[in-house]
């Protein structure tokens, strides 16, 4: 059956049914009959960074910042990153982990805001004429408004819509709200049908489907009337469906409205169908027309322990404990507070958790109203669970495989298709918390898939790096042909080892060049030394040949110098003796003159003559010595020559002195 045929049947009022399901007590009237109220501004706000299924955006604020209502606190730079916004004005007091709404009571990073009570808004830019903006601009505003599926899944709305453009023939606005106790959508439809229809027009403007169906269970007649009171375009119909749990689940509602089953692990878009919750549709309208991001939502507060049950606009980040007090909870001992309905909800570990985007109900039943399950018993293979399963699974088998951790068989029996509706556990006579086992097994399988995906990503990164290194190596080789030409083929070698080999080759080339230079320099110096030595030898040879005729000449010269010195010394002694004799002779002559003795005068004259003769002889010898060859000219010893010259000079001086004294002595005698 083609989509056109299906649409044709839909227009004729045709609806279908799904397998299984049940009709638990609805408990809707306890809260649906009171108008929506505003819960007000809480004394403090705790906003988890992650309130959706997807990635956490980058923080845009820090502790101490003052923020305004609607101000973006985290960035949205990826389709699966849904930003969060300040739900009122105030000061950021902390950014730290806090317990969040989860059965395990786990903590996640949160932005803590102390409201200032002013509720001052950031500047807004409403787009009442939204059709003046193209689809991309509307997409972007929806993304920045932080809208995620308010029906409970929390899937990023931008990501859902962006893949459905030009592909979705049928848009389903889900107002079924099948879960017992929850009436948030019911009240929203009753009081804001017109705004929801504006949201429908925005979605139509973006996706351009053939038909849009607003689906509502027949247990909400006021909501149905609210829509029908508004003029509806031809391509928008309100479809009333029978009340049956879980008709509000996406797959089951698609089957009810189109007769088509979404394939296992498939998407509704494969059938040309996309589904949006009524609360999400209203949020889209607020984001586009009012420029109001998702900072509040409708929450049902119900259960027999509430004195004032009802529905309220609650700011995201408000404390559950504070909210319970606002609606006059009268807790009994060990009071249970369930987030969600009686079928799919979970019991909170404590009330100090914040309201988030997917919080649609807080249920505080009495023990008599919703008694805790008795102790779990063994499966009796009654098969009731399979009878009610709306997905036509085999809950009993899934239970065994989940309990045993048999991932392969759990997957084989399509555990992933379980919508966790809780119908099987609801009818189980053994009180087996089947959904608990399924969730645990799903979490384990998801972890295994995530680890496998991480390993695959690491493998891809390694392959990419390996390819890059190879490309770089090839590029280097192309630019340095000599090195590549002398290198052995390393195309299959480790690129790091190849690089080391190239560096070593370059270093070896440098070393060889340096060694050649050193050798050449050494040879040059050696040749220079030999040349110098040859020249010196030649000079020495010439000097020796001109100054020394034989090796004995030096010795002879030294002997001659010694003789000269000895003669000079002798002359000196003779001169002294002569002076002494002349003095004696003079004395004798003087004495003779005085005594008038003729012999004495004669003797003195003889003595003087002898003295003069000696002096003359000494002078002659001294002159002979002076005529001897210069010692320096014949001796290799410069000191010896110099000493000989000095001795000769002394001898001449002494001889001259002796001659002068002799002359003086003669004058005295005369
Ligand atoms: S309903 Fe419970 S007891 Fe019966 S077959 Fe299923 S799991 Fe077993
Ligand atoms: S919880 Fe899962 S197995 Fe059980 S009835 Fe629902 S879909 Fe079927």
Tell me the layout of helices and strands:
Blueprint: H1 3-11, H2 29-32, E1 37-38, E2 45-48, E3 66-67, E4 90-99, E5 107-115, H3 135-144, H4 157-164, E6 170-175, H5 184-207, E7 211-217, H6 221-228, E8 236-241, H7 250-258, E9 273-277, H8 278-289, E10 296-302, E11 310-315, H9 320-326, E12 338-339, E13 346-347, E14 361-363, H10 384-388, H11 395-404, H12 407-412, H13 423-427, H14 434-479, H15 481-486, H16 495-547, H17 552-595, H18 598-626, H19 631-634, H20 638-669
Parallel strand pairs: 1-11, 6-7, 6-9, 7-8, 10-14
Antiparallel strand pairs: 2-5, 3-4, 4-5, 10-11, 12-13, 12-14
Helix pairs in contact: 3-4, 3-5, 5-6, 5-8, 11-14, 17-18, 17-20, 18-20
Bound molecules: iron/sulfur cluster (2 copies).
Task: Note the main attributes of this structure.
670 residues, binds iron/sulfur cluster, 4-stranded antiparallel β-sheet, 20 helices, 14 strands, alpha/beta
């Amino acid at each position: 059956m083609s989509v056109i045929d299906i649409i044709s049947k839909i227009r004729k009022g045709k609806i279908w049914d799904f397998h299984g399901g049940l009709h638990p007590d609805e408990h809707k009237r306890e809260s649906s009959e009171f108008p929506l109220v505003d819960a007000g501004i809480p004394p403090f706000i705790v906003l988890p960074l992650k309130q959706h299924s997807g990635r956490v955006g980058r923080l845009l604020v820090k502790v101490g910042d003052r923020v305004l209502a609607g101000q973006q606190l985290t960035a949205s730079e990826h389709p699966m990153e849904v930003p969060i916004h300040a739900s009122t004005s105030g000061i950021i007091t902390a950014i730290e982990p806090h317990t969040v709404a989860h059965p395990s009571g786990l903590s996640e990073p949160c932005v803590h805001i102390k409201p200032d009570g002013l509720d001052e808004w950031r500047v807004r830019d409403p787009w009442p004429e939204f059709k003046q903006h193209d689809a991309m601009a509307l997409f972007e505003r929806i993304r920045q408004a932080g809208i995620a599926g308010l029906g409970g899944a929390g899937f990023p709305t931008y990501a859902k819509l962006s893949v459905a453009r030009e592909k979705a023939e049928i848009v389903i606005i889900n107002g079924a709200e099948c879960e017992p106790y929850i009436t948030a959508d019911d009240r929203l439809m009753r009081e804001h049908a017109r705004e929801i229809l504006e949201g429908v027009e925005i979605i139509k403007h973006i996706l351009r489907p053939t038909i849009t169906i607003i689906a509502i269970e027949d247990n909400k007649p006021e909501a149905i009337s609210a829509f029908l009171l508004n003029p509806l375009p031809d391509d928008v119909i309100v479809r009333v469906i029978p009340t049956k749990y879980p008709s509000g689940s996406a797959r089951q509602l698609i089957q009810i409205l189109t007769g088509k089953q979404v394939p296992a692990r498939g998407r509704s878009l494969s059938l040309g169908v996309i589904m949006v919750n009524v609360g999400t549709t209203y949020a889209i309208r607020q984001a586009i027309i009012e420029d109001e991001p998702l900072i509040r939502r409708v929450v049902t507060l119900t259960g027999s322990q509430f004195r004032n049950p009802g529905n309220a606009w609650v700011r995201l980040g408000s404390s559950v404990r504070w909210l319970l007090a606002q609606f006059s909870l009268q807790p009994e001992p060990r009071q249970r507070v369930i987030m969600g309905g009686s079928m799919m909800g979970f019991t909170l570990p404590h009330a100090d958790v914040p309201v988030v985007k997917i919080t649609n109900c807080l249920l505080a039943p009495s023990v008599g109203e919703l008694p805790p399950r008795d102790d779990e018993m063994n499966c009796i293979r009654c098969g009731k669970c399979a009878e009610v399963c709306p997905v036509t699974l085999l809950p009993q088998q899934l239970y065994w495989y989940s309990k045993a951790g048999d991932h392969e068989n759990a997957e084989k029996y399509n555990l992933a298709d379980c919508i966790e509706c809780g119908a099987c556990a609801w009818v189980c006579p053994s009180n087996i918390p089947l959904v608990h086992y399924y969730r645990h097994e799903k979490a384990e399988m998801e972890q295994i898939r995530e680890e496998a995906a991480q390993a695959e990503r690491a493998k891809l990164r390694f392959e990419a790096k390996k390819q890059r290194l190879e490309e770089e190596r090839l590029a280097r080789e192309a630019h340095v042909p000599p090195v590549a030409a002398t290198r052995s083929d390393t195309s299959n070698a480790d690129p790091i080892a190849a690089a080391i080999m190239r560096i070593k080759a370059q270093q070896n080339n440098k070393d060889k060049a340096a060694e050649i230079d050193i050798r050449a320099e050494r040879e040059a110096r050696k040749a220079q030394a030999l040349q110098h030595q040859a020249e010196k030898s030649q000079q020495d040879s010439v000097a020796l040949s001109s100054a020394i005729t034989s090796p004995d000449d030096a010795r002879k010269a030294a002997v001659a110098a010694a003789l000269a010195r000895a003669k000079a010394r002798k002359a000196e002694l003779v001169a002294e003796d002569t002076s002494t004799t002349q003095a004696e002779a003079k004395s004798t002559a003087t004495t003779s003159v005085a005594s008038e003795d003729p012999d004495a005068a004669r003797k003195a004259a003889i003595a003087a003559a002898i003295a003069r003769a000696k002096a003359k002889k000494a002078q002659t010898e001294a002159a002979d010595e002076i005529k001897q060859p210069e010692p320096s000219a014949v001796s290799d010893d410069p000191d010896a020559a110099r000493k000989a010259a000095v001795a000769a000079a002394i001898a001449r001086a002494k001889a001259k002195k002796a001659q002068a004294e002799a002359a003086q002595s003669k004058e005295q005698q005369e």
